[in-house]
Design goal:
Belongs to the IspD/TarI cytidylyltransferase family. IspD subfamily. Pfam families: IspD. This protein is α/β, with parallel strands linked by helices. Helix content is about 30%, strand content about 20%. It has one domain: Spore Coat Polysaccharide Biosynthesis Protein SpsA, Chain A.
Length: about 260
């Protein structure tokens, strides 16, 4: 494949090396927190569900703000005013913008609000509320060290089959080469913007950078950085909060929702 990423755009700093905090401090990092979904699979907007006193989205934005110079939060258009008020006290401020009809459109809306001077842009799904500062540091460090993109991943323990439209197995990939990928994903800002300029769609941003010919590397993910997709995932997340805080069910200070009042 011919790469559209020019060689002279690779190193952000000649002093960079993996896991070097001093190198990380020489670049400006912004994060786009994607929370523009309607929760079709979950049954309602999962980003606003509570985990203890904080919502799923609150936890994601808090860590993003602590790990970045600035944060853009992408939410459904009808929620922009409310969420702008909710995040007005975030240190450094959070820019709240309306998302699009797809995840990639929402990322592009967020990316448009990231200032031109940003060197690295992280993209994080709000539905992963347990990403921590160490995970942000790992992906950013890898980009500072020279990668066009860096994504967290976990080894796969199940055997994976590739099937056709009729359900017939057509391939069995070597398990040792597979990774289950998470967010936050970090990218050189110029490369990520270039990857989105065509309006392409992808299930993650790394796929778009890969299609551009960029070099994307995998760093260690976190088993607790699980995505909340279904109601069972939310119950697991509340259990994790309970174990970490001593809260009996991870719902301290939370008013019951309509489905719990019935």
């Amino acid at each position: 494949m011919t790469s559209d990423v020019t060689p002279d755009s690779v190193p952000l700093t000649t002093r960079a090396s993996p896991h070097d905090p001093s190198a990380r401090s020489t670049v400006t990092v912004w994060t786009v927190v994607v929370a523009g979904g309607s929760g079709a699979r979950f049954g309602r907007p999962k980003q606003y569900e509570h985990l203890g006193p904080a919502r799923v989205i609150d936890r994601s934005v808090e860590v993003a703000a602590a790990s970045s110079a600035g944060v853009v939060v992408v939410v459904p258009a009808a929620d922009v005013a409310r969420e702008a008020t909710a995040f007005s006290s975030v240190p450094g401020g959070a820019h709240v913008v309306a998302g699009g009809a797809s995840r990639s459109e929402s990322v592009r809306a967020g990316l448009a609000a990231v200032p031109d001077h940003a060197d690295v842009v992280c993209v994080h799904d709000a539905a992963r509320p347990f990403a921590d500062a160490a995970l942000y540091a790992r992906v950013v460090d890898a980009v500072v060290a020279g990668a066009d993109g860096a994504i967290p991943g976990l080894t796969v323990t199940d055997t994976i089959k590739v099937v056709d439209d009729d359900g017939r197995v057509v391939a069995t990939p070597e398990r040792s080469t597979l990774r289950a990928v998470q967010t936050p994903q970090a990218f050189r800002a110029d490369v990520l913007r270039r990857a989105h300029v065509s309006g392409a769609e992808g299930t993650d941003d790394a796929a778009l950078v890969e299609a551009l010919g960029g070099r994307v590397v995998v760093v260690d993910g976190d088993v607790d950085n699980r995505k909340i997709t279904h109601p069972d995932d939310l119950e697991w997340a509340r259990g994790l909060v309970a174990r970490r805080t001593g809260d009996r069910d991870g719902r301290a200070g939370v008013a019951p929702g309509p489905e719990e009042e019935r």
